[in-house]
Design goal:
Blueprint (H helix, E strand, L loop, with lengths): L7 E3 L6 E3 L7 E2 L6 E2 L6 H21 L3 E5 L2 E5 L1 H10 L3 H31 L5 H14 L5 H12 L6 E5 L1 H19 L9 H5 L3
Antiparallel strand pairs: 1-2, 3-4, 5-6, 5-7
Helix pairs in contact: 1-3, 1-6, 2-3, 3-4, 3-6
Length: 207
């Protein structure tokens, strides 16, 4: 049984269960005073909007230079993929693998995973509740690793400053990639996981 079936609403701020008051159009938490809803308003629409924006920005994030290394008056720009290839050519395969997973595979998995969750919830596709909730929790867990490239660039820009001898500057690709990471994180936050349980009975029929 869902909490809403028992007439209970959970507060997003303090997580207190409140008795549902059908007579009140807008209900507030009895503990912290926060506005509570049976389901987050426009959760699917907002998540789709954030996800599509992230998917569009993912293209320039991979095509534009993520950073430029200036050494002795010469500059070399690298995209995410060219940087991975350069690391592999230098024999740093473990580092190249970590960057590839964090910068290429993780964002793609997050966007595809959230898309599947949205589609399955909206279209009542035959995916079990267990599969959906495991996917949702995994998407939340791997989200933090997407910022690895940005952290590395931020550290290098701050540390490598030797005037005309050597310096590192962030590129437009870094800004686009950071935007993709932030937007996918926001998409995971705006998605209301309680929607997964709204068609539990139809899902159980497929188990």
């Amino acid at each position: 049984m869902r909490a809403i079936d028992a007439g209970l609403l959970v507060c997003h701020e303090c997580h207190k269960l409140n008795k549902q008051e059908p007579a009140n159009h807008r209900q507030f938490c009895s503990r912290c005073g926060g506005v509570i809803h049976a389901r987050r308003p426009d959760s699917l629409v907002r998540t789709w909007a954030l996800l599509l924006t992230a998917a569009i920005l993912y293209i320039p994030a991979n095509l534009l230079p993520i950073m430029t290394v200036n050494s002795l008056g010469r500059g070399q720009s690298d995209t995410i993929m060219s940087g991975i290839v350069e690391l592999a050519n230098l024999g740093m395969l473990p580092i190249a693998a970590v960057v590839f997973i964090a910068s290429i595979l993780v964002p793609i998995f997050k966007m595809v995973g959230i898309s599947l969750l949205l589609y399955s919830v909206q279209r009542h596709q035959p995916m079990s509740v267990r599969q959906r909730i495991v996917m949702y929790r995994f998407i939340e867990w791997i989200g933090r690793w997407s910022m690895l490239d940005i952290f590395v660039i931020a550290i290098l820009v701050a540390v490598v400053r030797f005037g005309s001898l050597a310096s590192i500057e962030p590129g437009l690709g870094a800004m686009a990639f950071a935007s993709v990471v932030i937007l996918t994180m926001l998409a995971a936050l705006t998605f209301d996981p309680r929607l997964i349980w709204d068609n539990t009975e139809s899902d159980d029929n497929h188990d």
